[in-house]
Amino acid sequence: MSPRLTDYLLLVTLSAIFGASFLLIKISVVEVPTLTIVAARLLIAVLILFAVMKMVGQQLPRGVRLWMWIILAALVGNALPWWLITWGQEKVDAGLTAILMATMPLATLILAHAFTIDEKLNVWKLLGVTLGIFGVMVLIGFDELTSLGDNTIRQLAIAGAAVCYGVNAIITKQLVGSPRRAMAASLMLVSLVMVAPFAIIIDQPWTVSPSLEAVAAIVMLGVFPSALGTIMLFAIVARQGASFLSQINFLVPVFGVLWAFIFLSERLSFNAILALAIILAGVALARINPNVLKSKKPKEAL
Fold first, then answer.
1. Which of 95, 121, 215, 294 has its CA 20 to 30 A from that of 40?
2. What is the pTM of this model?
């Protein structure tokens, strides 16, 4: 079925929700320790997704092999990247975080080339990846990359989260065919089990006294990007497929920058704007299908 207005509205809404996660993290990380934020958003998401799973009559998946993939996906798709992003945002602005995360589809291309047999790099993908890497270098700054100060390390940690998402995009192919609501609840539950002990031991969250604003940001982080965002993501894939959903990679960084500007008064430097343009251009080039271009060439006269 061709995409309709409803599909595009869902896509834009989901992009706005995902883009808001960087804003909500920036608000909460000022007062709440990193691991506590991640554990709290996971707990909220688990409660919501388990309720949804029960409402549709699904059960947790079974099978040792499947659960091995779930554990791996939970680590590189939720627990590790969410910690890297949150830790990075202790020093990095929300808008810059959104731009760095725009490199995720380019990381996926490199990993898909290495670990799949049907998604190899071509000239356009290679050019897109090259542009993306150059865009990150422009954003961080060539001088900063050579000095590796605290901010640089945290920006690289956020870029590392984008790589984690790229790895997860490969892993989740092993989960195709399982009930979606049950799979989402399982991934969040395993992620929570991974993060919660560290949050309790290291952060001792009972000693923290955050403001109402910080608590509200964490609750919204769990309800919207973590739980509702996951449900909407599955709904869009079910309606129009993963290819249609991939357009979100162009919209999320734009919304991330927009929310940071509106609510945090963050202003992007010329380098940041240039980097965003370069990275998005790289993503666009990587999406070019050379077979389609060949099919559009005029046929030679007989």
1. 95
2. 0.90
